[in-house]
Amino acid sequence: MKTNKIIKSFDAHLTENYGNVGSETRDKFEEEFETFKIGVLIQEARKRQHLTQEELAKKVGTTKNYISRIENNASNIRLSTLMRIIKDGLGGNLKLSLDI
User: Between residues 77 and 74, which one has the greater pLDDT?
Assistant: First the structure.
């Protein structure tokens, strides 16, 4: 069976589907992707420590539902809450960088 699919780079795929770097659509996609990554990182760290969402929520003074929403990219998260989850809930440190 022969296919005529053209292989593209991921950047070309993003440009085709979300516009050029700096466009409103591309910026929105990249912002949402960063939020998604934070949720995945929290979920992976929680699971490595064998914590349930409920156990993590109790450690940081929030609800299981809120932790679930963060992990599933359905909630904007405040920086102070993110810091509590990482420091108090997971015993880690948050490092930020700024690209200007």
Answer: 77
Q: Which domain holds residue 36?
A: 10-89
Helices (H), 1-100: 10-18, 24-48, 53-60, 64-71, 79-84
The total number of structural domains in the chain stands at 1
What is the distance in angstroms between the CA of the first residue and the CA of the last residue of the chain?
48
Residue 47 belongs to some domain of the structure = yes
Local confidence band at 35 (pLDDT 50, 70, 90 cut-offs) = confident
Q: Give domain status of residue 36, yes or no.
A: yes
The dihedral through the CA atoms of 61, 48, 94, 31 has a sign that is negative
